[in-house]
Task: structure prediction
Amino acid sequence: MERVPTRIINIHPALIPSFCGKDYYGLKVHEGVLARGVKVTGATVHFVDKGTDTGPIILQKAVEVRDGDTPKELQLRVMQEAEWIILPRAIDLIANGKVKVEDGKVRFL
Result:
């Protein structure tokens, strides 16, 4: 059992495994979300591993996609309603020893 596979975490502006990977970063994520027409997006905090956005997921939070959203509007909403909430929470959980990784998945103690 490995408590923490790495010391690096990342926040991704979508609900992994959707809209992630090599070509999805910055506004490109939100452009992809809007182009696909999904109704819900969000953010994911995950451990960094050797892949791109493939590490164990720590926390996720959903955000509504609204009709007429621009990529920049959606980006700001995802930051305010998800990223700025779950990143500090993930750091707190890790700092207080409440996270472990088993079989490639995060478990909370």
About this structure: The chain has a mean pLDDT of 94. Helices lie at 27-36, 71-95. Residues 71-95 form the longest helix (25 residues). Residues 64 and 88 are 21 Å apart (CA to CA).
